[in-house]
Specification:
With 523 residues, this protein is of the alpha+beta class. It is built from twelve helices and 22 strands. The chain has a domain at 337-506: Neutral Protease, domain 2 (Orthogonal Bundle), CATH 1.10.390. Helix 7 packs antiparallel against helix 10. The termini are close together. The model is unreliable at 1-15, 17-26, 473-489 and 510-521 (pLDDT under 50).
């Protein structure tokens, strides 16, 4: 995770600066904004164009960690443009815009901003083809003190949130500009190249090398595109619903490998259940990757990647439920700004409650009660606001745990019928788009017919422990129940250990990325 706090691009590389200054002095066309204006990461993303498709065609050599190739971007301008920015950290050899060579340079104050000067200014609403060629060693590229590219003994993995594209393809890197993807990666025969969507084909064009071709047909946020190259065991099958299911396992997991398989191979079952809660599964393929290179999990679209920490105590379908739930909450319906993170993590965490209830390992009421009473009233946990935690607390445990309790409080406030109607209506209306917390609150009030401002204000935006009875009893009755339990705590639900492990690993990863270290967490 990189903390992009800058307001925009600074001075540009020598040779391009005078061009940009002269262009920006005219009334129109004008440079595209160097950021999307996100409140947490103002420099993330760019303005002036909208991407429809990324075609990423690469060659990767694990022995040297060299990545080379081209990305073709299909976009439409949203204003008259003299220049445009792409978020990208690697060394670029050439850029072409609409088949003509373009001038380009890196921002002197931000190495992840690639500034492009087309040969001719671009008109508003113009279809644009941008081709960027590049070669670099991604593991040696550091942006804002971090890298999302991890070199492994047999390859590499690029998996991260909120930023990862800068280490392997140029992009408009913000969830509000989603696109479809073709990802084609050539690697030595001995290793695999795993990415999102459907594996459309594997081809050989030269001795010793195989090209893996992947296609994602539904709109996808840039940080959800991933690449994992290595000595994976790749399994392919078809789900009961007829979708391709592809999973990949790193043999280096050793004794934990069976537990990983026993969890990830149940992805179609978990998906089938969550579809009854949230509505139809929004994508064309399913799968998962068990990695030994990371200690967290991330909901990459159609194919989540799970780190090695989740299997240390045996199988863990709780984390699978969390990541599969993100396919609806976070992937299909993406956040409108990074401060809306509760829309991703609160509902993915609550999906673990729903899954636990469905397999008889603790009801949502029991889990919510246990979770609520696990944090004392004076705990710093209650000072974090899930609806606006701040960039430094974006993946704090409270975003997950208090976020899930907020969802349960909503369920209790509006009743079962309205609650599940709300979740399914939200998904149907926002599929393939991005959304904000105020939009969700408005829909919740419309579907339920109840005023909910106070509830959301209390749970999402007010520090302190809310007065809450997770079981639906009065506060006094709930307190009496807890007092009668052993050690003043309610009985621990069967699934609690897995959920707690999942959330602890997720929170640790969020903290680690903010502060530039590596731990383990489930996003």
């Amino acid at each position: 995770m990189r903390l992009r706090t800058r307001a925009g691009a600074g001075a540009v590389a020598t040779g391009l600066a005078s061009i940009l200054l002269a262009t920006s002095a005219s009334a129109a066309p004008a440079p595209g904004a160097p950021g999307a204006g996100d409140p947490y990461y103002p420099g993330a993303g760019n303005g002036g164009y909208d991407v429809q498709h990324y075609d990423i065609r690469l060659t990767y050599q694990p022995a040297t960690d060299q990545l080379s190739g081209q990305t073709t971007i299909l976009a439409t301008t949203t204003q008259e443009l003299s220049t445009l920015n792409l978020d990208f950290g690697l060394k670029v050899s050439s850029v072409r815009v609409n088949n003509a060579p373009a001038k380009f340079g890196k921002d002197a104050k931000d190495a992840s901003e690639l500034v492009v000067q087309p040969a001719k200014p671009l008109a508003k609403n113009q279809f644009v083809t941008i081709v960027v060629s590049y070669t670099d060693t991604p593991s040696q590229v550091v942006v804002d003190g971090a890298t999302a590219w991890r070199k492994t003994p047999t390859g590499a993995e690029v998996v991260d949130e909120p930023f990862s594209s800068e280490w392997w393809y140029p992009a408009n890197d913000h969830p509000t500009d989603k696109a479809t993807f073709d990802v084609s990666v050539e690697v030595p025969d001995a290793v695999s190249a795993i990415s999102n969507g459907t594996l459309v084909r594997k081809t050989k064009q030269r001795t010793g090398w195989t090209r893996w071709n992947w296609r994602s047909t539904q709109p996808q946020a840039t940080y959800l595109a991933f690449l994992a190259v290595g000595n994976f065991e790749v399994l392919q099958s078809t789900t009961p619903s007829g979708q391709p299911f592809l999973s990949a396992y790193d043999p280096a997991l050793g004794a934990a490998l069976p537990a990983a398989k026993a969890s990830i191979e149940r992805t179609p079952e978990v998906t089938e259940f969550l579809a009854t809660q949230f509505g139809p599964y929004p994508f064309e393929a399913q799968g998962g990757v068990a990695s030994n290179a990371i200690g967290f999990a991330l909901e990459n679209q159609t194919r989540s990647v799970y780190g090695n920490s989740f299997w240390r105590n045996g199988s863990n379908t709780s984390v699978v439920a969390h990541e599969v739930a993100h396919q609806w909450f976070g992937d299909s319906v993406s956040l409108g700004k990074w401060s809306d993170i509760w829309l991703n993590e609160g509902f993915a965490s609550y999906a673990e409650f729903l899954w636990s209830e469905s397999i008889g390992e603790g009801t949502a009421d029991e889990l919510a009660e246990y979770l609520y009473n696990s944090y004392p009233a004076d705990s710093a946990f209650w000072q974090v606001k899930p609806g606006d935690p701040g960039a430094d607390k974006q993946f704090d445990a409270a975003v997950y745990d208090r976020g899930a309790l907020a969802v349960h409080a909503l369920r209790k406030a509006i009743g079962e019928e309205s609650f599940f109607k709300l979740l399914q209506t939200w998904q149907a209306q926002k599929k393939g788009k991005h959304a904000t917390i105020p939009e969700f609150i408005a829909l919740a009030e419309k579907v339920s017919g109840k005023p909910l401002y106070d509830l959301f204000q209390t749970w999402l935006f007010t520090p302190g422990r809310p007065d809450f009875s997770p079981t639906g009893q009065s506060s006094a009755a709930s307190a009496a129940t807890v007092a009668r339990a052993a050690d003043g705590k309610p009985a621990e639900p069967k699934s609690w250990a897995k959920i707690q492990q999942t959330h602890a690993d997720l929170a640790a990863h969020g903290h680690a990325h903010v502060h530039g270290t590596e731990a383990g967490r489930d996003f």
